[in-house]
Fold Probable transmembrane protein.
Amino acid sequence: MKRSAPAAILLATGILAGCSTSNPLEKKLDYKSAEPPKAGNSLEVPPDLTAPQIQNKYVIPTTGSASALANSNAAAAAQQAPAVQAAVTGNTIAVNSINNITMERAGTQRWLEVKGKSPAELWPVLKAFWQENGFVIKTEEPDLGIMETDWAENRAKLPSDGIRKLMETVGLGGAMSTPERDKFRIRLEKTANGTEIYFSHRGMYETFINEGKSDTMWQPRPVDPNLEAELLGRFMIRMGISEEQAKEAVKKTQVVADKPKDSIVGGTLNINDSFDRAWRRVGLALDRIGLVVNDRDRSQGLYFVKPAKGELDKKDEASSSGGFWSSLAFWKSKDAAEKANSSSPEYRIQIKEADSGSSTLVVLDKQGKPLSDSFAKSVLSKLQTELQ
């Protein structure tokens, strides 16, 4: 695709802005969601978008005299006031009364543990948090505790130089952009004591695909665990924790404890974690590698997954030429394609308690039979990497 401004300038912009601080909660973030994709734009948007909820926010005045109209509006306002006040008060309590919130870490993964709050109570606060940070919520599944943002650009990476100021002066500030986009998948897990919150990052980078540097293509960027931690820390602040407490929480999780590498033996991934811990960590790892969790059954240790719709629907030629899923969409291998009769195959990931402090993971087909083809091997390999 072609950029709205010279590609060389934009790529240089991204390089110049690449330097950022590694101190907790000091990254410069100014996200703005990408516009809906147009013809020729290879940034796919999942088709299963949630329709916006329509609310009657305004009172429709009744016909009649001016005094009757005033009385009608006053009565309606009085009727709405308690509900509005209750909503505001409830939101204040939900945010400011949170003291039992901690950040946990295992390998490159971090998550929050919020005691005394259910996923239903945290859901509206989470949604508001992402919207306040410049993201558009594209997918919402409260029953599964899953939320996904749209692709967004961190405009804080644009340099504040004379060129940018000049372009903004003449109304062309939007023409400047960085060659990077980010999106996040948010998952909530209900526990006996409250709720666990996971943020999983996925990134894209725009590169030239011809010698003339006139056309570009979006390629995958590595997952950024530090960016996940940054936003988790900011959400802690949103929940009422002080900035210093949040910084300390992020700082403590920067130290990674030594952990034996999980091994793959005969189509089984051996995880050096108890079932409870493995269950939580595998859920986040599945988000990172692009397998969407459609359902789960903790009692049987099952995650029901399928490839992310938006990326799965990309044209085969884009993938074969090194596009977005050339490295991530291992389910589009020939073995998987021959097995699946539909464009969206379904799989199961099963976790079982092996012995004290360890678990096993296997990949199953839709009927619950173990898989040992290239698809299963790719899943196990990528999960092994994410769980370190």
Observations:
- The first strand starts at residue 31 and ends at 33.
- Confidence is low (pLDDT under 50) at residues 1-20, 36-70, 76-97, 310-342.
